[in-house]
Each structure stands twice: as structure tokens, then as C-alpha cells.
Design a protein that fits this description.
There is one protein chain. The chain is built from no helices and eleven strands. It is mainly beta and 127 residues long. The strands form two sheets. Strands 2, 4, 5, 6, 9, 10 and 11 form a seven-stranded mixed beta sheet that branches. A four-stranded antiparallel beta sheet has the order 1-3-8-7, with no helix packed on it. β7 (68-73) and β8 form a beta hairpin.
Length: 127
């Protein structure tokens, strides 16, 4: 079992920045690929960004490319999502997720591919 705890959400003005953190505990000796998803009120949970266990492969949804950066620190069992130039449409609950990768350089974008989820952290961007 892996437990994931997100932090770093909050209220920010449009154009501002936030950095989300996701700390993993439990069976963290396994090699997990990580992802960030978000869910706005009345909408489906959607993919935001993913990173391989090795950290050498990342992927983003188009609307956040150039603004968000996903990174990881395996020594700290933590993955981050740095969000810059935030927009009102980024308002959502952000969730991190973990999946045992089939290889160190694999990442995953599908919601149903992930095995473990955090409880989420609210990000609100005011315009």
C-alpha cells in the first residue's frame, strides 16, 4: 500500500504561482510513476501532468504546457507540481496519483491506470 498526501494548494490571483507537493509513504521502495490530475466542480477528473519514476520522462496536457512543471525527488518520496501564470480555469481540486511502472522511464496519462490516490488539495485562482 502507498499513501499519498498533497499540500500547497490555496487561493492565488490570476498570473500568480503555486507549488503543490505530494508526499508518498508506505511501500515506496517500489518504483512508481506519478501523475497529477484535477477536478473542477461539475466536471470529470482530468489529467494534468505525469512523470516517470526515473524523472527523465514527463508529459502535460496542452493547456498547462509552458506553465506547469512536474518534478520528483525520489530520496524524499515526493513529487511536485509548480504552477506558474495561473488562470481562473485552473481552479480545481488537484490530486496526485501513483502507479507501479513497467519500466523506469514510463509515465501514464489515464486516470484508470493509477493505483493510488491522494485526498486532493484545493487550488482557487481569482481573476
Amino acid at each position: 500500500q502507498v499513501q499519498l498526501v498533497e499540500s500547497g494548494g490555496g487561493l492565488v490571483q490570476a498570473g500568480g504561482s503555486l507549488r503543490l507537493s505530494c508526499a508518498a509513504s508506505g511501500r515506496t521502495f517500489s518504483r512508481y510513476a506519478m501523475g497529477w490530475f484535477r477536478q473542477a466542480p461539475g466536471k470529470e477528473r482530468e489529467f494534468v501532468a505525469a512523470i516517470s519514476w526515473s524523472g527523465d520522462a514527463t508529459y502535460y496536457r496542452d493547456s498547462v504546457k509552458g506553465r506547469f512543471i512536474i518534478s520528483g525527488d525520489n530520496a524524499k518520496n515526493t513529487v511536485y507540481l509548480k504552477m506558474n501564470n495561473l488562470k481562473s480555469e485552473d481552479t480545481a481540486i488537484y490530486y496526485c496519483a501513483a502507479k507501479r511502472g513497467v519500466g523506469d522511464s514510463y509515465y501514464y496519462t489515464g486516470r484508470y491506470e493509477y493505483e493510488y490516490w491522494g485526498q486532493g488539495t484545493q487550488v482557487t485562482v481569482s481573476s
